[in-house]
Structure formats: structure tokens, C-alpha cells
Amino acid sequence: MPTTLEGQNCLVTGAAQGLGQVTALALSHAGAAVGVSDINGVGLADTVDQIEKGGGRVMSHVTDISDPQSAQGLARAVQQDLGPLDLLVNNAAILGPVGLPWEVDTQEYWSTFEVNMRGSFLITRAFLPAMLERRQGRIIDVVSGAVSLPYIHCAAYANSKSALVAWTNSLGAAVKGHGICVFAINPGQMSTRTGMGSLVAERPEHKRFNPEVAAMLARGGGEPPETAARLIVRLATGEADVLTGRYIGVHDDLDAMLRRSDEILGGDLYTLRIRKLTA
Fold it and tell me: pLDDT (tens digit, 9 = 90+) per residue, 182-202?
């Protein structure tokens, strides 16, 4: 398998800070031409500056991923400035309201789905036709470990990411045989502004709801975004294409998963499923 991404065109959404910015830099360092998008133009300019200082090729586009016209505008800009897209990283997301499900604002709850699920859907739809025509492309949806937990005080975030995992699985099955691979990755509990750390730092109520997480992050714990960025770069090489449609976490042993891929596919593992009692 290739060890660099020379010749690949990649796009990272939510690239103005945190994991998105780190991922864009990692893809550039691996040799890819990188498109970056975010609703935050100031932070996006910083990402572009860092990539250019490293000698990388980059283009940027301020995008509201929850708006269909903005998503289509991004696809046109990437095609014009970079060319056909090889890798799409749907990273842009919001954390949503914090509190018990019956206490949070209903519009805030639903707005979390508008960004985290609908936004990723719209961006994917904008780029998918060209990938299907070329019979080539990879899509990575950044999700969360919260998808398999009750997470009662951040239900909007957890629920929207669960929907995104299900979408990844459905899309992976739909494009099977069309040369396109799709993955959902769990970046771990990051302490970046786009991760759990922002809740602890900016929303005091989260410390009350999740004291263990707050204590861990206060000690400097949490997964660095570089870990997930390395996983994304590795998936971009194509070595794990056999696992298309699956959920892969930064703490999973990808080498072991590849060795046991027949078992994973045969047992329908690393997916969200309803498990029922057997007779």
C-alpha cells in the first residue's frame, strides 16, 4: 500500500481548529493537496497559513454545511481549485445543548442534528456523484464514542452522532462495488475546543454532569487530536478498504482488525445493531 498521499485531493470540514485543523495538516504533510472548509473564516485562514508555511497546496472555502447551496458551492470550489476529490473528511460538528432531555431547548436539540447529521449528509451528497462517476473515493465521518452510551446530559450530540454511524453503514453498503469506501471513526475523548474539553471549559454545568471527565481533563488527560489524524491518514492510503462501512476507534487495533477482517465481515461486527435474545 502507498505510504504517502501524493496525488490525492482531500477535503476536511470543520478545519478552523481542533481535530479538523490537525487532520488537514497531517494530510498535507503526507503529500496530499488539501481543501479546508469551516463556517469560521478567521480560524480557517490560520489553517491555510500553517499548511502554506509547510509547503503544502491548500484551498479554503467558508461553508455552512447545514445549507444545501453552501454545500454545493463548496463542491464547485474544490473541483475548480483542486480537481476531483479522493478523500472527504466530514469533521464539522457542534456539541449541542447540555442538560436533561426534557430541560434543553428543543430548537437547540434539533439544530445539533442539522449540523452533525444533515450537514455531513449534504456535503457527502455534493461530492458523491463525481466519485461515483470516477468509481473512486473515500469518505470518513468523524463520530464519537458516545454513540453506544446513554449520555443523558448530551443526548443531542450522542443521538446525532449515532445517526451518522448508521448513515455511514448504509452508505457503505449502497456504494459497495462502485469503488468508494466509507468509514466512521471515533477520535476518542479529546480535550480540544471541538471536543469534550470545550464543554468543561466553557459550560460549567458540564462539570456537574460529568465530574469524572472534568477531573480527567483537568489533569491533562484526553486523547490528542493527532491520534485520530494519524488514523485518518492511514485510512486514506486504502489499506483498510475491506472494512468499509465500519466504525473504527482510535483505540482499536487496526492491524488486528485487518488480519481478522473475514471474521468482522462474517459477524457483522463494528456496526450499530439491535442484539436480541436467542431461543
Answer: 999 999 887 655 455 555 555
